[in-house]
Design a protein that fits this description.
This protein is an alpha/beta fold. It has three domains: about 270 residues, 3-Layer(aba) Sandwich (Rossmann fold); about 90 residues; about 45 residues. Helix content is about 45%, strand content about 15%. The protein is built from 17 helices and 16 strands. Strands 5-6-7-9-8 form a five-stranded antiparallel β-sheet. Helix 3 packs across helix 15, helix 11 packs across helix 12 and helix 13 runs antiparallel to helix 14. The longest helix is centred in the last third of the chain and has 23 residues. The radius of gyration is 28 Å and the shape is elongated. The protein binds one RNA strand through helix 4, helix 9, strand 13, helix 12 and helix 14.
Length: about 500
RNA sequence: GGCGGCGUAGCCAAGUGGCUAAGGCAGCGGUCUGCAAAACCGUUAUUCACCGGUUCAAAUCCGGUCGCCGCCUCCA
């Protein structure tokens, strides 16, 4: 078929590209797929512009220490970020801090601190927590308090377009004007129980389902100087408009991926969508990824329920961030995660097993080559990466890793691994650790005195001078080094430092 | 009442139409070891909450039942 324009017009039609996409879906198992909360289906991930990905995660409110529910959310965001990067995408990743809302204002009031000082200390703590969990920094961490102008501007434009109204000094979004409301959560406004969790008497909305964009400042806020002058009077922004304003400010009108916990789908994300899409007529995000909830004894974690654990609680109990990361990573992000200390202990054991393997690999002298190692390794890498590409199936990926260790362990203890193979394994582990961030792969050279002691002990053992051998072993233990004898020689392990 | 999720071995947890139902923990058996500790290997589900249906084929799809959980415009 010859077309007058060379067919370009047809190549750009949606019909054609849809067919193209279908073909691609079948073509490659390696293609990155995400479960999109909008369609409730797994979809092949295609960013708007080539290798660049815009990614937004709802961040924490700076008024409390990160609890395990928060941690799960942010670790899932970290995994998405790392998986995207491993696929060669250039990720623009922004996560906000909600540092201006009822909780932060109340918290500052209670602790008799200026709001900014109060939130600053929690933001600092939060970043330390994320470091402990091995979470990579975002490209930027915008703060709500620094983007109020944009929020006021959005509000003015929404009023202009007829999507919002002013009442007694507060501005509300008029849901009846936004026909697509509910497309993410599947909510039917005529059937929900309005007022089930809210005391509607606190509001002056025209309809109870409308939500606040800007809230009239209270007397106590005015006294503390926490208010913004607008044509409608003194106000502070509501939560939903904060995220909508920051995500579009940094990442554009339509972002590739928006993530958070599923408990935020309604109303928060639904309202963000309403604000952004009423304004631009374009989708706020193409892919919505939601992590499931973390439960303790089958119940949601909450301070009222008395079953709330902060990251700091666990660190204080002697668990380290790596162990907690393992625990939070090991369950698929779209399944509920039941937290327990038993599980945390299991995570510790799993890590010990991984450490044992990598430490042996690093310590033991290489020997003869083994014919199947390369095949085992490429099989593991394929399974590992394939599992992650398929909606970040970390459980499956870890399964492939443990399987591999099981195959290599006997080979390792027989010393049938040559230098090249050892290098090859360590390189591949390095690659997968870019996502896991759990493996200890650093070849830390021993201090000369430690090396000396290990050699001394080996000599004593050769001479069957058991007393001296045990003395040296104790000495090494005091210095924090555990020695494990293997048929191929001693393997040393440095005692784990508390990673706080 | 509405919307959504979960139920797979003693425990945790993948798999969502077809190869032997991943992997981990605990248990049991074994190997190694001067001692010790660890480690390593083997083994553990004729069956996927229950009942019925569709199909040559179901943990997976459809209908129903039971149990547990989350959200429903406070805040995040």
């Amino acid at each position: 078929m010859i077309l007058p324009d060379g067919g370009e017009k047809y190549l750009s039609t949606t019909l054609f590209s849809a067919k193209e996409e279908e073909k691609k879906d079948v073509a490659s198992e390696e293609q990155l797929r995400f479960h999109n909360s909008l369609s409730k289906k797994k979809e092949v991930f295609r960013p708007i512009s080539g290798k660049k990905v815009t990614f937004y995660a709802c961040g924490p409110t700076a008024h409390e220490h990160a609890n395990l529910s928060h941690c799960r959310r942010f670790i899932v965001a970290d995994l998405i970020n790392r998986v995207l990067e491993s696929k060669g995408f250039n990720v623009q990743f922004y996560m906000n801090f909600t540092d201006l809302d009822e909780n932060t204002i109340r918290g500052a009031e209670k602790s008799r601190q200026p709001l900014l000082e109060f939130t600053e200390s929690y933001i600092r703590e939060f970043k330390a927590d994320m470091d402990a969990l091995g979470v990579k920094n975002a490209t930027g961490f915008p703060r709500a308090s620094q983007h109020v102008e944009a929020m006021i501007d959005i509000t003015a434009r929404l009023i202009e377009k007829g999507f919002a109204y002013e009442k007694h000094g507060s501005i509300y979004f008029d849901i009846s004007k936004f026909k697509r409301y509910g497309k993410l959560s599947g909510i039917d406004l005529s059937k929900i129980q309005v007022g089930k969790t809210v005391d509607l008497d606190d509001y002056e909305k025209e309809s109870p389902v409308d939500f606040t964009l800007l809230k009239r400042s209270t007397l106590s806020e005015l006294k503390q100087g926490i208010f913004y002058k607008t044509e409608w009077g003194n106000v502070r922004p509501g939560w939903h408009i904060e995220c909508a304003a920051m995500s579009t400010h940094y990442l554009g009108e339509t972002i590739d991926i928006h993530t958070s916990g599923r408990d935020l789908i309604f109303p928060h994300h639904e309202n963000e969508i309403a604000i952004a899409e009423a304004l631009t007529g374009k989708p706020l995000a193409n892919y919505w990824l939601h992590s499931e909830q973390l439960l303790v004894e089958g119940k949601k974690m909450s301070s009222e329920g008395g079953n709330l654990f902060t990251l700091k609680d666990l660190l204080n109990k002697g668990y380290n961030g790596r162990e907690i990361r393992f625990l939070l990573i090991a369950t698929h992000y779209r399944k509920p995660l039941h937290f327990s200390f038993k599980k945390l202990d299991e995570a510790r054991k799993n890590l010990r097993r991984l450490d044992e393997f990598t430490q042996k690999l690093l310590c033991l002298p290489p020997g003869l080559p083994h014919p199947k190692v390369a095949a085992y390794l490429s099989d593991m890498e394929e399974r590992f990466c394939g599992a992650l590409a398929n909606d970040i199936n970390m459980s499956r990926a870890l399964g492939a890793l443990f399987d591999f260790m099981k195959k290599i362990n006997p080979i390792l203890s027989e010393g049938k691994l040559d230098l090249e193979q050892k290098k090859y394994i360590l390189e591949t582990f390095g690659k997968i650790n870019e996502i896991l961030n759990l493996l200890k792969l650093k070849e830390c050279p021993l201090a000369p005195e430690i090396d000396r002691l290990i050699k001394d002990r080996e000599e004593a053992r050769r001479n069957k001078d058991w007393e001296r051998a045990d003395t040296v072993r104790n000495e090494l233990a005091e210095k924090g080094f555990e020695i494990v004898d293997t048929p191929k020689g001693p393997v040393w392990k440095e005692r784990e430092k508390l990673e706080q």
